[in-house]
Fold this protein.
Amino acid sequence: MTEAKHIVVAGKIHTAGVALLRARNDITLDLVEAVTTEAYRPFLPRADALLLRTQPLTAIDVANAPKLRIVSRHGVGYDAVDVAALNARRIPLAIVGDVNSRAVAEHTLMLMLAAARRTVAHHLASTSSNWNERNRFDACELDGKNLLVLGFGRIGRRVAELARAFGMVVTAYDPFVSAEQARALGVGHAATMQQALREADFVTVHLPGGNGPVLGAAELALLKSSAIIVNAARGGIIDETALDVALRSRRLRAAALDVLSEEPPAADHPLLDNPYITISPHNAGLTEECAMRMSLAAAQNILDCFDGRLNPTLVVNRTAIAKSE
């Protein structure tokens, strides 16, 4: 009899993905709902596969999983995964592909609108008998404003499409996208990020993380004092200390973040009590529909790996693994 393969699901996922795994009689599971490395670490020695939410996976953790055959990310980012440690053992790191771009793009527009229209501040005022907050005239409109989209992949392109429906003038900055490609999608093309920042009324970030801040104090200083920044991509892309200073000194109008460099943030994180910021708990892709799609895709990647038919286009380290053969 073939020995059952054991999967560790690290972090709460939609029940559809769990059901897909449970439907196989050659699979056993450990479901660890807490989204911390410490919570799933004790289960690694038994793991043939790891389905991972947003927690880090270090080289030490990989070494403590001698049976590990695949890591399947419940999403598309993998900044917190030690890919080199996986490469050394030829363990594929799979992502879910394009299952969350529309959800993240919608959330980006929601954050943009919330920051521009001061939604959170006005809600709090309205529910605390401060109805005259309405007379501050501190909200602004999207219509006619210049939007700079940093990173023009699937999510950035969908954001541009939605923003144009609001009457925004969209410019994209992406070193891997040509001016012709941008024009074909109805948006402008920025040759340099610095000049585009100077002209932007709104900036949305859709870049990969892991290489330090893209928007530091120097870049933030290029923006208009009326500018609004939205980041629903990766924590650490914006220098959070510099952002806090710029907002409090009114060098920037507002910001809205779905991601932070440390999650969850410490209780004394300065941005948490900054009156010019809107924060959501890294849930841009966690609609009911998207959570279901991500759980099914992440689970299916594991099953496909076990069955010898894992889609190579979903394996982010396939080139490194091939070179080590």
